[in-house]
Design brief:
The complex is a heterotrimer of chains A (about 280), B (about 250) and C (about 300). Chain A has eleven helices and two strands. Chain A is mostly helical. Chain A has two domains: about 1-35; about 60-280, Orthogonal Bundle (MetI-like fold). In chain A, α6 packs across α8 (about 180-210) and α7 runs antiparallel to α8 (about 180-210). The radius of gyration of chain A is 23 Å and the shape is globular. Chain B has helices spanning about 45-50, 85-90, 105-115, 125-135, 140-145, 155-170, 185-200, 210-220, 235-245, and strands at about 5-15, 20-30, 35-40, 60-70, 75-80, 95, 175-180, 205-210, 220-225, 230. Helix content of chain B is about 35%, strand content about 25%. Chain B is α/β, with parallel strands linked by helices. In chain B, strands 6-7-8-3-9-10 form a six-stranded mixed sheet, with helices on both faces. Chain C starts with a helix and ends in a 12-residue tail after the last helix. Chain C is globular. By secondary structure, chain C is mostly helical. Helices cover about 75% and strands about 0% of the residues of chain C. Chain C contains 13 helices and no strands. The chains are: A mainly alpha (about 280), B alpha/beta (about 250), C mainly alpha (about 300). At the A-C interface, α1, α3, α4, α5 and α6 of A face α1, α4, α5, α6 and α7 of C.
């Protein structure tokens, strides 16, 4: 019996170690494959130069800028709406409708991203093109709008969860003192919930940066430094999806992995940051 | 007074996350008797029971220091010795919790569960021992026609007797009961008290209870746990109890 | 009593936001349904081949979505077969065996894994293929197996997390029941804890299936192609619904192809919604009743 117990313990431990190994292996493999070019000079070149493989310039700066731009803008669009929706769900709660909205938001997480991209191509892009009468309509704004919709469930669910965790006794105390809903929100709920909300924002930003399909399908994919909302741009994820160098030793191929490493690092930093917020260190 | 000691605890300390819950406990528990433990709530009465079957080991942050010896008929054994198999101990020291805790399965499977754990597969043996246990717990007549129903469909009192029956299946020498009647109605309480008086012929019973009247009705020995210490119940309380009974 | 001005503003703001979100989602779904419902029929899936013939592989389907749908189904089944055992075992370890320090480290790695963009996971799968192709066997190319393997990495943290949370949320009284009857840790896990948390775990697995069905970024790097027919083996290229939708949105050459793309998008939406609703149903109806937790120290 004791032998069996120890056997299962080792089995489960082995499984966890293997799963953890995957996380490390993803990074190590990418580093390994572009190791030959990983020199300080070259990294500086890659992080600052423009992209023009014909002229021997392999900078991913435009893509990094595109990624940050689109992700940030989608957050700017999504944040106020998500905030309002989570007020609706957790604070106003108009006769069961709050729960209904919450169900809808949960359902949104099940909508495939390719669907957002698809509807973006055939509905949003023509719409933007008509309204602004500029370019193809495949631009930073279109991508950010769709991406904003994509990340709103993450924001809303984190926000409303943080609101609901404020102890009821505090809320009762404000109510008993005759406080208004606004005062309750301002003096009790927000000071209590901001950490959870920030976690949601960081994770949603990570999702926006990591999404491929929406940017790939509706941001136009032009490799230029973004200068206007109606300009086309390319994200790092779309760059990986687009450049399909078959040549194992080509520089384009190695740049894919550098792009991958940059994305990996940025999302991991986000996770580490939320961990720091949580402050649940090893006991 | 106590002639036939079965459990001996010496210099026993219990910690929960560096907080002292029990302090320097010394106790002797008599065989085939009902020992009642009372005291203010939240002072570690449940913990005291869990020390005897080492169930606290399944709770994060709990720690025990000291000596517990139990005589299972072969002289006193140190049940905290490294080589002492904890699963054997728990089959010899049964436990019933405050809230009835039938597992989400049929009545029959609940009772047969301890046997399943021991690897018993013979259907005849299983059904025989299920019947015996249910009869011992005064439950057989009420459930014999519905053995395959989910145990959670039983009433609270029936569930608690089911849990007692289940604890009796491994034929334990000692039975620990943690406020077994606190969530039950008066009629169920009487049935269970009668049951305990019957069981003490074959078992040593340690009962946590905060009903003084219940303790007065069925306990042979009384201990009080308060301020981290376990003491014999003050004689004055017993005098008053005796006077009331007279 | 009339509401104060800030309260009314807050209320107005919330209503506007809620309405905006609801109408955005409605527009997306409505657009898709309106454009796609006419295309969703047997012809969309089987083209002009008789359904029975197609399913029994008597006749190959060229124009229809059958190859893409079978590809997606194969992907789901294969990646679940890889991810579920590993995820369950890891979740059990985290919840039942790991010390708090080990738990902290492991869950950090799993959080990072779940944060890695799916295209990077796809790139990982792709690079493994290239690596194997160059150093081991020239015949190794991106294929169904590599895609399924990469997808399983993608959903692994979900499965670990739902398993861990389902187990950890079991009340202490239930956890102690079997040990008090002499159960070993292994018996407690397999006889009591796992069966009791099954509804949560299964609903998590169904959600993970949805992730496998919808993900496009991973498979576009690891073996999904525009035309492959029904996959013949796990070492061949394959079609998949989401990739088909992506591909058609960019490359359609004829209105009839576009109509099929709408149909495919609606079909994928229906599949993912069905999985979502199924998972929701499992969680809410199969929930075993737990006793209210007691056992204070």
């Amino acid at each position: 019996m004791d032998f069996q117990d120890r056997f299962f313990r080792s089995l489960f431990l082995g499984a966890s170690a293997l799963s953890a190994l995957v996380t490390v292996a993803v990074l190590c493999f990418m580093v390994l494959l572009c190791l030959p070019v990983l020199k300080l000079d070259f990294i500086r070149h890659v992080l600052t130069a423009p992209w023009s493989p014909g002229q021997g310039q392999f900078g991913i700066l435009p893509m990094m800028a595109g990624t940050i731009c689109i992700a940030f803008l989608s957050l700017v669009i999504s944040f106020p709406i998500s905030l309002g929706c989570s007020f609706f769900i957790e604070i106003l709660k108009p006769k069961g409708k709050g729960n209904l909205l919450k169900k809808l938001v949960q359902f949104m997480t099940a909508i495939p991203t390719v669907i957002y991209g698809f509807v973006g191509v055939f509905l949003l892009v023509p719409f933007i093109r008509e309204i602004f009468a500029y370019g193809s309509g495949m631009c930073i704004l279109s991508a950010s709008l769709m991406l904003g919709l994509l990340i709103s469930p993450t924001l809303i669910l984190f926000f409303s969860q943080s609101f609901s965790r404020v102890p009821q006794s505090y809320l009762n105390a404000v109510d008993a003192l005759g406080g208004t809903t606004w005062q309750k929100l301002y003096h009790v709920i927000l000071p209590h919930a901001w950490k959870g909300m920030l976690t949601g924002i960081v994770l949603a930003f990570g999702r926006a940066m990591g999404d491929t399909l929406i940017a790939l399908m509706i941001s136009g994919n032009a490799v230029v430094m973004p200068s206007s909302l109606l300009d086309s741009a390319r994200t790092l994820t779309a760059h990986i999806a687009l450049i399909f160098a078959a040549d194992f030793d080509s520089m384009e191929f190695k740049i894919l992995f550098i792009s991958g490493i940059v994305l990996y690092m940025m999302t991991s930093l986000g996770i580490l940051f939320t961990r720091g917020l949580d402050r649940k260190g090893p006991a | 007074m106590k002639t036939n000691i079965q459990i001996r605890m010496e210099n026993l300390w219990f910690y929960y996350h560096d907080r002292v819950i029990l302090e320097d406990i010394h106790a002797e528990i008599e065989k085939n008797a009902i020992t009642a433990i009372s005291g203010p709530s939240g002072q570690g009465k449940s913990t005291f029971l869990m020390i005897l079957n080492r169930l606290w080991e399944n709770i994060d942050g709990a720690k025990v220091k000291g000596k517990v010896e139990i005589d299972f008929g072969k002289g006193f054994e140190d049940v905290y010795h490294e080589s002492y198999p904890v699963h054997q101990l728990r089959r010899r020291v049964g436990m019933v919790f405050q809230t009835p805790n039938p597992l989400p399965m049929s009545i029959y499977k609940n009772i047969a569960f301890p046997l399943t754990l021991m690897g018993e597969k013979n259907q005849a043996t299983l059904s025989h021992r299920v019947e015996t246990a249910l009869k011992k717990a005064f439950l057989w007549d009420e459930v014999k026609d519905r053995l395959l129903e989910n145990a959670e469909t039983l009433s609270g009192g029936q569930q608690q007797r089911l849990c007692i029956a289940r604890a009796l299946v491994p034929e334990p020498d000692i039975l620990l009961l943690d406020e077994p009647t606190s969530s039950l109605d008066e009629a169920s309480i009487r049935v269970i008290e009668a049951l305990l008086l019957e069981l003490k012929k074959s078992c040593t019973i340690i009962l946590v209870s905060h009903y003084m009247d219940q303790i007065g009705r069925i306990a042979d020995h009384r201990l009080v746990l308060s301020e981290r210490k376990l003491r014999p119940a003050p004689d004055k309380a017993r005098d008053i109890q005796n006077r009331i009974e007279k | 009593m009339t509401k104060s001005f800030p309260d009314r503003l807050l209320s107005l703001f919330s209503w506007i936001c809620a309405m905006f979100l609801i109408s955005s989602v409605s527009i997306i779904l409505g657009f898709l349904i309106l454009k796609g419902y006419k295309a969703v029929n047997l012809e969309l899936i089987f083209s002009d081949v008789r359904p029975l013939d197609a399913l029994l592989l008597r006749q190959r389907v060229f124009g229809g979505l059958l190859p893409a749908m079978t590809g997606t189904v194969f992907l789901i089944v294969l990646s679940m077969a890889l991810a579920v055992p590993l995820g369950l075992a890891s979740g059990i370890f985290l919840s039942e065996y790991a010390s708090s320090k080990i738990k902290w480290i492991f869950s950090l790695t799993f959080d990072i894994l779940s944060g890695i963009p799916s295209i990077v996971v796809g790139l990982f799968g792709f690079s493994i293929t290239v690596f194997l192709h160059h150093y081991f066997n020239e015949r190794i190319f991106p294929c169904l197996l590599i895609s399924a393997l990469s997808l399983s990495f993608l959903v692994l943290p979900y499965i670990i997390r739902t398993t861990q949370i389902s187990l950890e949320s079991l009340p202490l009284s239930l956890r102690l029941t079997a040990p008090a009857l002499g159960a070993t840790k292994r018996q407690n896990i397999f006889f009591v804890l796992l069966p009791s948390s099954l509804s949560g775990i299964i609903s998590g697995i169904v959600l993970a299936m949805g992730r496998c069905a919808e993900d496009t970024a991973v498979i576009m790097l690891t073996g999904a192609v525009a035309t492959a027919g029904i996959p013949k083996s796990i070492f061949s290229g394959f079609e998949a619904l989401p990739f088909y939708i992506y591909y058609m949105a960019a490359e359609y050459s004829h209105p009839s192809e576009l109509r099929k793309a709408y149909g495919a998008a609606l079909l994928l939406l229906i599949i993912c919604s069905a999985l979502f609703i199924f998972s929701y149903w499992i969680k809410n109806t199969l929930k075993t009743k737990h006793f209210t937790g007691h056992n204070s120290l």
